[in-house]
Amino acid sequence: MTDTQMVLKNEQATEQLARALAALAQPGDALLLTGPLGAGKSVFARAFLRCFCGDDALEVPSPTYTLVQTYQAPACAVSHFDLWRLGGPDELEELGWEDAREGVVLVEWPERLEDLTPTEALHVGFTVGPDGVRTVHLHGWSDRVNGVALSASLPA
């Protein structure tokens, strides 16, 4: 497994990382986004979805209340899950988790997946330091992620 860590100097760097990873995503992939509120998960998800779907103007509402939003991209469907309000992994069946796994899934609050966590997922962990500096840690996709850190740290 690849472990990469980088500082995200601004929102544009977060967006650039999301676009770089969207270019690598394939049907069956899962990206698991962790981090505290305000760490950059929503900025990342919005940029990822716009790039993966090929639509820079795509409206990307937060799935906090709907729990899942699904978009049709050229390669496959992509589902954005926000599991903050999920009662447990058994509720995922009602949300179409198994069908969504045929496409790409982007999951906020993935710890609620419990034993349904995909083993080959890319873990994207956001942290915010006391000085407000955001850092992201990537774990997984060792066959694809090499070199992304360098490209994401370039100025937007």
TrEMBL record:
GO terms for cellular component: cytoplasm. InterPro entries: P-loop_NTPase (IPR027417), T6A_TsaE (IPR003442). Its main location: cytoplasm. The keyword Nucleotide-binding applies. SUPFAM superfamilies: P-loop containing nucleoside triphosphate hydrolases. GO terms for molecular function: ATP binding; hydrolase activity; metal ion binding. Belongs to the TsaE family. This is tRNA threonylcarbamoyladenosine biosynthesis protein TsaE.
